[in-house]
Amino acid sequence: MSDVMVELRGAAGLITLNRPRALNALSLDMIRSLTAALLAWRDDDEVKLVAIRGMGKEGPFGAFCAGGDIRFFHQAVLAGDPRLEDFFTEEYALNHLIHRFPKPYVVFLDGVVMGGGMGISGHGNPNSMRIVTERTRMAMPETLIGLFPDVGGGWFLGRCPGRVGEYLALTGHALGGDDACAALLADGVVNSAELESIWTELAAGGLAALPGVRERLGAPMGETPHLGPHREQIDRIFGLHSVAAILRALEAEPDGVWVSQTANALRKASPLMLNVTLEQVRRARGLTLADELRMERGIVRRCFQLRPGTASETMEGIRAMAIDKDHEPRWNPETAEEVVTEMVGAYFDSPWPAHAHPLRHLD
């Protein structure tokens, strides 16, 4: 059975990510299937609405998408597989297609929503409806594998309230549904038990069903359990000018669970990529999504080519987390204090002139 199930039911285009054993991690073939379906439906006047969900291990829902297939990245680098370049170019083009999609795009963000799963979740498109549940675990944990929050991550994290974007980008902290709404990364919460009936309602009613679905979306189901109590600390500390300064500020805070968890998360991540990520999010605040994706495309190429083969932070992070699974990456440099401006700047030096950029056609 296909890893992407596509169905047209009446005026509704329905997509199910169907790779549950891999938590619906995106392959290049899946990216191409999603792109083909959305391009066809964008230009089909009979299709009025699109809905997308993930298949869980026990049936529909329960997991949305855990990101890109990082094992493929590792294998592609070792094999010199040119599809690695295609993967990122086509994934980012898909993210932009979704952002500019002219029809309602309803995303069921149940269960794990990470990395590439965030990239296909709507990017705050006015035509999107991003539904989360009590089971949602939403994160951009790329710094833990020596990467950065791509798929437009700088753009949507840069538009979170205050310095929440920097906090999420650097720590990779996973948000529940309530906190996802508070961070402006989702539009409403429902109980997971309602998802099947909402899906059926949209499939049967198309556009006519949207008002009723919107009425079923609740605001956060209670106090935002994580972001709310720590917003003052997040805004004060993660607004500082460098990762080293952020770590110093955390060490100066009164000891507590949040402080220790946050500091530990930063210490596990690549110091170099933490600095690249901080710069990415801050630059992205002044960019369109198209320009931000073009910037990211250059950064991700640098991730794999500035230090070729297994020498890159990304390859070392994937090795430690997904290949050898020793969870002991050997970062270079080892500390945030050792990262200098020139190291970070090299990631933002585009590998292509503007006229030859692989995403030059995005508007």
UniProtKB/TrEMBL annotation:
Signal sequence segment: none
GO molecular function, one term: 3-hydroxyisobutyryl-CoA hydrolase activity
GO term, biological process aspect, one: L-valine catabolic process
Record SUPFAM superfamilies: ClpP/crotonase
Ranges where the Enoyl-CoA hydratase/isomerase domain occurs: 13-348
Keyword line: Hydrolase, Isomerase
Pfam families (alphabetical): ECH_2
InterPro entries per UniProt: ClpP/crotonase-like_dom_sf, ECH_dom, HIBYL-CoA-H
Cited PANTHER family: 3-HYDROXYISOBUTYRYL-COA HYDROLASE, 3-HYDROXYISOBUTYRYL-COA HYDROLASE-RELATED
Protein name per UniProt: Enoyl-CoA hydratase/isomerase family protein
Organism encoding this protein: Caenimonas sedimenti
